Amino acid sequence: MDRNRTMTEFVGSLAVVFFAVGMGDVFAGEFAGLSSLVSIVATGLVLAIFMIAMGGTILPMFTLAKMASGRDEIEDGMNDFIAQMFGGIVAYALAWWQSSATTAMTWGGLDALDPYTAVASLFGGFLMMMVYDRQGAGWEVGILAGIVGLAGVSITGAGDFGGMLVDSAWEMSNMLAVFGGMIASGVGAYMAIMFGEQLLNEEE
What we know:
globular, 75% helix, mainly alpha, Glycerol uptake facilitator protein, 204 residues
């Protein structure tokens, strides 16, 4: 196991989720309408910064796609995936502990996995993987993450899993939304890899 790689995925996922949750909570009072918007923007910005500074995949959708396409060995990909999910859990646990002294923090939840959300996640994963692949996991991915997040795509997956676990929100609708959205995004990212390798001239 590559410890540096595992720590990069863990810390990157933790940072993206923690600051997204924290910035959302700042605006959760009288500016509640801005809470989700600020959270999405914060996610994109922190993701961009970490991808520039540390590299890594950070997002489970990319990890799943790279395993499915054979770019990553299953063992390496599973280590990355577990580190990302654990980062999301720790981030939500820290946010819960931080806010428990003043307010009761609850996970915001996700919309039900309806056909629109599934297609949006699929298309969002496709677009983000195209940019990730062709721009070398740079700041462009973070900017695009913020944009597709506004369309209802679950960006991190690990964050929603962490929120669901910490808040004990194990309803079937939540589980379908979290894991279904993550899988749909991963399938979209996998399609982008196949599209790039088979139909696009990578030298252009």
